[in-house]
Amino acid sequence: MSTHAKRERLLLADLLEAAGPEAPTLCTGWRCRDLAAHVVVRERRPDAAGGLLLNVLKGRLDAAMAEYTAKPYEELIQLIRTGPPRMSLYALKQIDEAANAVEFYVHAEDVRRAQPDWSPRELDRVFSDALWSRLEKMARLTGRRSPVGLVLRRPNGQTAVAHKGAPVVTVTGEPGELTLFCFGRQASAAVTLDGEKEAVAKLTVAELGL
After folding, report:
1. Nearest of 184, 140, 179, 186 to residue 163 by alpha carbon
2. Contact 12, 108 (CB under 8 A)
3. H-helix or E-strand containing 203?
4. Is it the case that residue 79 has pLDDT exceeding 50?
5. Dihedrals phi, psi of 17, to nearest 5 degrees
6. Residue 53 gets which letter from DSSP?
7. pLDDT at position 119, please?
């Protein structure tokens, strides 16, 4: 596994373990047990994971989630730590990095920021740059449902257009915070929003993300 994806995987497992199965997350309606099951199903049940994107497979996804949430929580944590099966596409380094570095970062923050005693995490420059690179490529996809024009801006001035339109709201923050914002965690992201008051209000409750 690649460096970023492996580190974020192990961090996510540690956070889930420390929080416990019934602790809340930023994912609406999900406790840590549900989030852990989601991660495992996504990697180990490709026949069901398609339900994350295709309604026709939603029933299969729900059945797989029910199966895994019923498993011992410690088993789910161990499955996350050990990673996908050898024959899984996620076991390939390039796919692991492309698909999991951002996924695990976001879910780690889902656990961290839902706890009352959470503290900010300072990301190293290399990982921040990696997140920004991914965000630039995914900006239009994650921002496609924005009700207003959406521009993402790093403190160093780099920008990415996530949605064309008017009025425009510019969201400024570190790459990790912008990533959370674009994946629908607007209320928990440490960013500043510049634009018309009504446009900002619409954006903060918009359904962003994949």
Report:
1. 140
2. yes
3. helix 197-204
4. yes
5. -65, -45
6. T
7. 85
Instruction: Render the burial of 35-64: b for 16+ CB within 10 Å, e for the rest.
Output: bbbbbbbbbbbeebbebeeeeebeebbeeb
Query: Do 37 and 65 contact (CB within 8 A), yes or no?
Result: yes
Query: Does the bond joining 46 to the residue before it have cis omega, within 30 degrees of 0?
Result: no
Bridge-based pairing state of the strands 149-153 and 168-172: parallel
131: tokens are 């997140």
What pLDDT was estimated at residue 57? 64
Strand segments (E) across 78-203: 149-153, 159-163, 168-172, 192-194
Measure the CA–CA gap between 151 and 119, rounded to whole angstroms: 27
Other Cβ atoms less than 10 A from the Cβ of 3: the count is 13
Beta carbons within 8 Å of 18's beta carbon, 6+ residues apart: none
Q: Give helix 73-82 / helix 32-44 axis angle, nearest 10°.
A: 40
Instruction: Using a cut of 0.85, tell me whether the model's pTM lies above it.
Output: yes
At residue 20, what are phi and psi to the nearest 5 degrees?
A: 95, 160
Task: Quote the percentage of the chain above a pLDDT of 70.
Answer: 94
Residue 154 and residue 132: Cα distance in Å, rounded? 9
* 3 state DSSP class of 39: helix
Instruction: Give the Cα separation of 1 and 146 in Å (integer).
Output: 34
Tokens encoding 117? 């005693």
What are the tokens at 40?
């495992």
Q: What is the pLDDT of residue 184?
A: 95
